[in-house]
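Researcher: Good morning. I'm working through a list of sequences from a screen, and I'd like to move beyond sequence-only analysis. For each chain I'm collecting a predicted structure so we can compare shapes side by side. This is the next one on the list. No need for commentary yet; just the structure.
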Amino acid sequence: MRIRLNVQDLLIASWETDRESVERVTPPGLEPADVDGRFLVSLVSFRVRSGRVGVLPTLPFSQVNVRTYVTWKDEPAVLFLGSRVTAGGLPGLLLGAPYRSARLRLRPGEARASGLGLSLRYRPAGDADPGALGRHELGVFEDGGLRAIRIKRGPADWHGAELLEPPRTDILLA
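Model: Good morning. Structure tokens for this chain:
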């Protein structure tokens, strides 16, 4: 099934971790993978303005996911550790998406989900190269075994960001 989403306000905030931490959350069949020589955990937020699932239109929704990076069948992949969406994204559950509901406030310069212990305030800081983080094309999640989705991106303008205050990221601990 083909899914097309028009995404805006994408934020990828990453923290360096160690291989052992990634191994603890990695299911059998996957291997922890470094990204540019570092093991990372990332918090990704974005808003879906519109889209299509097959021929059906999607509702607008916001999403926050926690991910790390792995190798599956010799291919680099994103391992989704948790995904939260607003109400408009919940129909994705019918397609097997590993979503849970959350109240999210995503806008340029801010990603906030009080119930998840998330608060990131930032300032865009010029053009940036996302490196390997912007090139992963395979997403993997657990759902009675490993399931995968293929990701194809269109053109995008990438920008760096600077934190405006210390982040609150309790969601990463969960």
